[in-house]
Design goal:
The chain has about 290 residues and is mainly β. The protein folds into two domains: about 70 residues, no CATH class; about 220 residues, Sandwich (Jelly Rolls), CATH 2.60.120.200. The protein is globular, with a radius of gyration of 21 Å. The chain contains one helix and 20 strands.
């Protein structure tokens, strides 16, 4: 091999001079860092301790690739409270959130946006008040029919008023899905797909979290696949997963008539459950959580 080819995107004129002493140099306007390498050494982008590399490099020579960062723009569904122009509201009273993915489903419902005291890492959120029966809803095929998917949520978990206070609820098909409190006054967490349930480890949960569902049907028929829930990149429950979720009526912060208080920050649904760690790190960095 004569050499290695790397593709690096940065603002025009922003590539800095890199010294020979091995020091890391930040590319202005980005979260990327460069380090000069010696002949024969594999180049890399490596942030200093405490910062996360969202833009992992891809080696393309010899057909060998390195892991790339999570690409939210390639998601199937993406709702983002920090993107204020996507939120329809009157005086802060929310009525809808547009999907950032063309052709994706919008969320409708209620909540309060533009509440500065509820900003997270300087980003706007939507406050969900259980007492006001706030929830976000959509109708249609939210998840891919193939059955493999990753759902990444950034949410604030707040007031619980019933064992069935719901975070996620999908119904109206042969195989539904839900995550509910599993306790009358605190969020302990239980996960259910198609009647197969698993309780969250290490309860209770409150405050801001990254909650992810990684559903993988690869092992199905005759061996079941698996569906896993992660909270802040820690696996909290795993259940067998035998048929694709085909619910067509969806709610966030509600299960039936039981509501959950908190904050909606972001929801991203993508097609590859293997992206769980990369997706976690993408949103955790954005919202100021530990990556």
């Amino acid at each position: 091999m004569v050499g290695e080819v790397y593709v690096l995107a940065a603002p025009a004129g922003a590539i800095p001079d890199v010294p020979n002493d091995g020091a890391l140099v930040q590319i202005p306007g980005t979260d990327m860092y460069l380090r000069r390498v010696t002949p024969g050494e594999l180049p890399s982008i490596a942030p200093p301790a405490g910062l996360h590399d969202l833009f992992a490099m891809r080696r393309i020579a010899d057909g060998v690739s390195r892991t790339a960062g999570f690409d939210s723009a390639a998601a199937l569904q993406w709702h983002d409270a920090s993107d204020v122009p996507t939120i329809s509201h009157v005086g802060g009273a929310v009525s809808a959130i547009a999907n950032k993915i063309s052709g994706g489903l919008a969320l409708t419902g209620s909540g309060t946006t533009g509440v500065g005291a509820s900003n997270v890492n300087g980003l706007n959120t939507i406050v969900m008040d259980r007492a006001q029966s706030n929830s976000l809803e959509t109708s249609g095929a939210l998840l891919p029919a193939a059955g493999n998917w990753l759902w990444t949520l950034v949410v604030g978990i707040g007031a619980v008023g019933h064992i069935n206070s719901g975070l996620v609820y999908g119904t109206g098909g042969d195989v539904g899905l839900y995550i509910t409190a599993n306790h009358a006054s605190q969020f302990n967490g239980t996960f259910n797909i198609g009647g197969v349930a698993g309780a969250f480890a290490n309860p209770p949960y409150a405050g801001l979290h990254v909650v992810q569902i990684a559903a993988d049907l690869t092992g199905a028929a005759p061996d079941p696949g698996t569906a896993k829930v992660f909270v802040d990149n820690v696996e909290v429950t795993t259940i067998s997963y035998e048929a694709a979720v085909n619910a067509v009526t969806w709610s966030l912060f509600r299960y039936g008539s039981q509501y959950l208080g908190g904050q909606f920050c972001e929801s991203i649904i993508s097609a590859d459950p293997a992206e769980q760690v990369a997706a976690h790190d993408f949103v955790a960095t954005k919202w100021g959580l530990a990556a």
